[in-house]
Amino acid sequence: MPAQAIxxxxxxxxxxxxxxxxxxxxxxxxxxxxxxxxxxxxxMAHAAGCLPLILQEQxxxxxxxxxxxxxxxxxxxxxxxxxxxxxxxxxxxxxxxGDHCVQVLGAADVVRAKLPNTWVxxxxxxxxxxxxxxxxxxxxxxxxxxxxxxxxxxxxxxxDAIRSSIRLFNRNRDLLRQLYELRREGRIQxxxxxxxxxxKSSMVMDKALHNELLKQLLAQLLSARPSTGSGxxxxxxxxxxxxPKTGILDLIEDCGGIVVDDDLYHxxxxxxxxxxxxxxxxxxxxxxxLARNLKVPCPTRVxxxxxxxTYLLGAMERAKAEGMIVLMAKFCEPHMYYYPEIKExxxxxxxxxxxxxxxxxxxxxxxxxxxxxxxxxVVKRRAGAPTRRVA
Amino acid sequence: xxxxxxxxxxxxxxxxSSLNNQLVNDxxxxxxxxxxxxxxxxxxxxxxxxxxxxxxxxxxxxGEAWSALLAARNNEEPAQTAAxxxxxxxxxCSYARTHIGCGVLAQKRGAExxxxxxxxxxGAGLLGERVPAPDMFISAYPYCSTGQQWDEMLYRLxxxxxxxxxISVPWVWGNKKDSQYLGGSEFxxxxxxxxxxxxxxxxxxxxxxxRKYDFDRLCEIMSYVKQAGRLRMEAMDLxxxxxxPASFFDWxxxxxxVNFIKGGPAIVDYFTKVKAEVQERLAAGEGAVRNEQYRLFxxxxxxxxxxxxxxxxxxxxxxxxxxxxxxxxxxxxxxxxIDVQDPLAGMAINYLVCPINLSAPxxxxxxxxxxxxxxxxxxxxxxxxxxxAFSNPQYLIAEAVQKRLGIxxxxxxxxxxxESFYKDEIVSSRVEAMLEAIESRRRAGIAA
Lengths: 391, 448
Ligand code: SF4
Ligand code: SF4
Known about the structure:
The complex is a heterodimer of chains A (391) and B (448).
Chain A: H1 3-15, H2 17-28, E1 31-35, H3 43-47, E2 50-54, H4 75-85, E3 94-97, H5 102-114, E4 119-122, H6 134-153, H7 159-184, H8 192-202, H9 207-223, E5 232-238, H10 246-254, E6 257-262, H11 268-271, H12 281-295, H13 308-318, E7 323-329, H14 333-349, E8 353-358, H15 365-384
Parallel strand pairs in A: 1-2, 1-3, 3-4, 5-6, 5-7, 7-8
Helix pairs in contact in A: 1-2, 1-8, 1-9, 4-5, 6-12, 7-8, 7-9, 10-15, 13-14
Chain B: H1 17-33, E1 41-44, H2 50-54, E2 59-62, H3 63-72, H4 77-86, H5 94-108, E3 121-124, H6 126-129, E4 136-139, H7 145-157, E5 164-166, H8 185-209, H9 215-237, H10 248-253, H11 265-284, E6 294-299, H12 307-316, E7 319-324, H13 325-328, H14 344-352, H15 360-373, E8 378-384, H16 388-391, H17 394-405, E9 409-414, H18 424-443
Parallel strand pairs in B: 1-2, 1-4, 4-5, 6-7, 6-8, 8-9
Helix pairs in contact in B: 1-11, 3-5, 4-5, 5-7, 8-14, 9-11, 15-17
Bound molecules: iron/sulfur cluster (2 copies).
C-alpha cells in the first residue's frame, strides 16, 4: 500500500477514534474497552479479546459538557466530560482507567454518572514511584484490573494470552521507535504531523493491523530518498493526555523548524519502554510501569530517582536538537509545577526554549507564527555563535 | 427576600473561637523555637498526620496552615510573587504557590538552602524569619495529585537532600458491589494499605530521629484527638436547632485544633468550651445570624482571605451557613473509628474519608444526609479556581441536591488564598438569585 494510503488510514483512526473503533466492533465483534491516558496498559484488555482504545480529546467545541465541568480545566478533561455528556461513548462496552491527575479523577466521576449502563471501573495506580512498595502495589492494581476484566468478559484471562499481547504491543512500540530513529538520523522524511498520526492511531487501531501498516510504511519511507532540507532542529516537549493540534506542528515546520524528536505522550512517551515477555505478566507490567518513568520521566508521577529536566537536556543532545519548544496545555497542573525546573535548567545550560500555552478552543495559530519565527531566528543565531554556557 | 441592610450587619461569631488564636500562636511559637530546642522539623500538607510527628518529638510545619496564616496576616503577596517569578503560573494551587514561593525566597539566601532558616520569606516580616526549614518531608495527600506534587516540588527545591516519605492514599472509588461509605472489601483493603504505610512512616521517623518510635505516646495523643473530634461533632450537631447557634464560618475558624495543633488537653479543653458556648446559645435561643431566615450549606474549600467578609455578608442576608462539606466531612469527624489502644486503622479511616477522597456517589449520599439533618434550604458551591480537588464533583453534587432535595444552589467563584479570583458582585447576584428561588418555593408552599 502506498505511504499516502497508509497515512490516510492512520489519520482516519487518529482523528475519528470512536467511529473507527465502532466500525471495528461491528465488523469484528470485539468488545470496546476505553481507557484514559497515560499509564494504562492496553495489553490485558487486548488479551481478553477487547479492542483497547485510549480516549482522545476531540476538536469540537465544548457544549453540553459545560454543565458538568468548570472552564478552568485542561482541554482533555473538558473534552472527555463533553463527549460523555453528548452520549458519544455509547458504543464502549467498558471504560477502565487508572490515572491519578486530579483533573482526570473529576472526569472519571462524571463519566460514571453519565454512563450508568457501561462498565466504568477505576484502578488507581500508585503514583509515587520510588517507594519500597511501589512495585508490589502496582502489581496488586494490575491484578485487580485483571479480575475486573475477567468479571466483565466472564472469561478467565490466561497468562499466555497476556504474554502474547505483550509481544504484539512490544512489536508495535519497536516499529514506531524505528520511525523515530530513522527520522532522527535524517534517513527518512517524516513530518511531526505524520509522526503524531502514526502514534495516535496506535492508541486506537487493532495492534496487528497497525503493525502491518507500520512495516509497509517503513519499507516505503526507506526506499524514498529523503530531501536534504535544512532548518532549525527542534525538540518538542510537553502535552500529556491530549495530542497537540496538528496545526501547531505544521506551523513550527512552516516557520523553518524540523522536529527531530519529542517527549510527547502522543509520541516518544507512549512508546519508550517495552514489557518483559517472559515470566509473570502482571509483574512484568508493574516493572514496565516503573521503568518507563525512568526512561521518560512523567510529571504526573513523583519519583525521586527521575529528573525530567535532566532527561530533556540529554534527549536534546542525543537528537542534536538546537532548541526546544514546550507545549503546555492550559490548566495542566503537573506541567505548571515542573515547568520552572525545566526553565531554570535550560537557562543554566544556555539552551534556548520557548513556552507555548495551548488551548482547546482558541485558534491561536496566527499570533503564534511570529513567536515561533522569532524563536527559531534566535536559535539559528545562537547555533552560529559559540555556545554560551551559564554556570 | 431581605437584601443587605445599609448598616453593615455583623455575624454573631462564637466568642470561644478567639481561644483558637492562642492555640495557633502557641503552635507557631513552638515551631519557631524548634531548632533551638534541638527538634527536627517536618514539612507536610494535607491530612492531619501531625500526631505521627508529635509522638516522636518532631516539630511540624503544615503547608496549608502556613499559607493560610500568611493570607490572614495579608502577607501572602511576596511569596506568591516569588513563585510567579520562578515561573509558577497563576492557575496552579494557590496554597502550593504560596508555600513554594516561601521556599523560593528561602533559597535565594543561598546559605539557607541547606534548610537552617526561613528568613526573608515575608520580606522583612518577623514571622517568616523564624519559620524553620525542613529536616524531612512526609507526603500524605489524599485524592489530589497537586497536593502530592507540591511536596515533591519542595523536595526538589531544597536540592533533593532532605529525606521524603510518601504515603499513597487510595481514592475511595468503589468498583465492587459491596462498596459503601466506610465499608466494603475495597475500602477495607485501602485501610490495610494505609496502615502498612503508616507503620513504615513510623520507622522512617525513628530512623531520622535516631530514637525508637514511641507508640504508646501516639496512643495517648490520639486519645485527645478522639475526644476533641467527638466534642466538635457534638457541638456541630447542636446546630440542627433553629436558629442554629453557630455557623460554618465558626467551624472553619475552629479547624486548627483538629488539623495541626498538638494533640493534648488544650484541644479537648477548647472544644469543651466551644460546645458549652453553643449550648448556652441554644438555651437562650441565640443564633449565629440575626433573624435566621435561610439555612445554607457550603460546598467546597474555604476562602481564607474572606472568612469574616463572607460571614458578615451572609448574616446581612439573614442567611445562616449551617454546615459544609469542608467542616463536617473531615477533620476527625469519624472519631468513633479510632481505637486509642491501636489507633492506626482509625487514623487511616479518617484520612481516607476526608472531604475530597470519596468518589461522587459516596460523597453525594453523605452531603444529602447532612442537608436533611440540618434542614438546608439552599447550597452555595464555592468553585475555588485553583483547587480542582474540591471543585471536581460540584456539578454532580448540585445536580443531586436539586433533583433529590429540590433545593436551589448558587455557584460562586473564589479561591483559597488568591484574592484576585473573588468577584463580589457576581457572588452577590448568584446568592440573591438563590435566595429568591428559596422564597418562591416557599410562596408556592413547597419547602418546609
Ligand atoms: S495531566 Fe495535564 S493534561 Fe492530563 S488530565 Fe492532568 S491536567 Fe489534563
Ligand atoms: S488543589 Fe486543593 S486539594 Fe489540591 S493541594 Fe491545592 S488546596 Fe490541596
